[in-house]
Amino acid sequence: MSELLKIEGLSAGYGEAVVLQGVSLSLAEGETLALLGRNGTGKTTLINTLAGATRQHAGTVALGGVALHRLPAHERAAAGIGWVPQERNIFKSLTVHENLTAVARPGRKGATAAPWTPDKVYAMFPRLAERKTNLGTQLSGGEQQMLAVGRALVLNPRLLLLDEPLEGLAPIIVEELLRAIRRITREEGLSAIIVEQHPQAILAISDQAAVLDRGTVVHTGTAASLSAQPELLDRLLGVAR
C-alpha cells in the first residue's frame, strides 16, 4: 500500500504553549490508526493540528504528497481531511439534510468506492433518514454524532479524523457507531485516525496503533499486536508519572 500520511518532527500547541514535541508517524492508504494515550497526552492536539486548528511550531505533515502544514484550516477539507471534533460542530440551526448538503463535495477522481452522498449517509444511519427535516437542536447526542460523521463523509475525504466518537453515548449507539466505522474503514477502504478512551473497541477495527505520552510518541505497532498484549497496553495507558 502507498503511503498516505507522513508526519515528521511535528511540534504544535496553542499559542506559545507546546503540547506535541517531535511527533513522527505515517499511515498507508486504506489503513486505520488507533491513537491512544491517557487524558492530556496530546491526542486531541494532534487531531486538531492535522485539521489546522492549532499553532504548528516545527515539522512537516504531508497528505498524499501535499504539504498539509502549509495550508490554512479552510483549505484542508479540499486537500482531503474529514474532521469530526469532540464538539461535533454541526449546524444546529439547520436541518439534518441541510447539514449534509451544505458541505457536500464531489467524490475524488480515481476513488474505488462510490462517493459519499447524503443518500449514502442515510443508508448507513437510518436514524438520520427518519429525522431528515429535524433541526440539529432536535437530535439526541447519538444522532448528532452520526450527523457529524456524515458531514465529514460527504466531503469525500482521503483521511477521516475521529476524536473520541463514542464519548458519552449509550451502549446501543456505541455499537451502531462502531459498526458504521468498521464499514467506512474496512468495506469502503477510507483511511482514518481514531482517538478513543475505549482502546480494545478501537484496536479491534484498526490496523495500526500509536500511543502518546506527554506529547511524544512512546509506542507504535500493529493494532493486533498491542491488543494481544494487555499488560503492555495497561502499562502504556495506566502509568501516571
TrEMBL record:
<dbReference type="GO" id="GO:0005524">
    <property type="term" value="F:ATP binding"/>
</dbReference>
<dbReference type="GO" id="GO:0016887">
    <property type="term" value="F:ATP hydrolysis activity"/>
</dbReference>
<keyword id="KW-0813">Transport</keyword>
<keyword id="KW-0547">Nucleotide-binding</keyword>
<keyword id="KW-0472">Membrane</keyword>
<feature type="domain" description="ABC transporter">
    <location>
        <begin position="5"/>
        <end position="239"/>
    </location>
</feature>
<dbReference type="GO" id="GO:0015658">
    <property type="term" value="F:branched-chain amino acid transmembrane transporter activity"/>
</dbReference>
<dbReference type="InterPro" id="IPR027417">
    <property type="entry name" value="P-loop_NTPase"/>
</dbReference>
<keyword id="KW-1003">Cell membrane</keyword>
<dbReference type="InterPro" id="IPR003439">
    <property type="entry name" value="ABC_transporter-like_ATP-bd"/>
</dbReference>
<comment type="similarity">
    <text>Belongs to the ABC transporter superfamily.</text>
</comment>
<dbReference type="InterPro" id="IPR052156">
    <property type="entry name" value="BCAA_Transport_ATP-bd_LivF"/>
</dbReference>
<dbReference type="InterPro" id="IPR017871">
    <property type="entry name" value="ABC_transporter-like_CS"/>
</dbReference>
<dbReference type="InterPro" id="IPR003593">
    <property type="entry name" value="AAA+_ATPase"/>
</dbReference>
<keyword id="KW-0067">ATP-binding</keyword>
<dbReference type="Pfam" id="PF00005">
    <property type="entry name" value="ABC_tran"/>
</dbReference>
<keyword id="KW-0029">Amino-acid transport</keyword>
<protein>
    <submittedName>
        <fullName>Branched-chain amino acid transport system ATP-binding protein</fullName>
    </submittedName>
</protein>
<dbReference type="GO" id="GO:0015807">
    <property type="term" value="P:L-amino acid transport"/>
</dbReference>
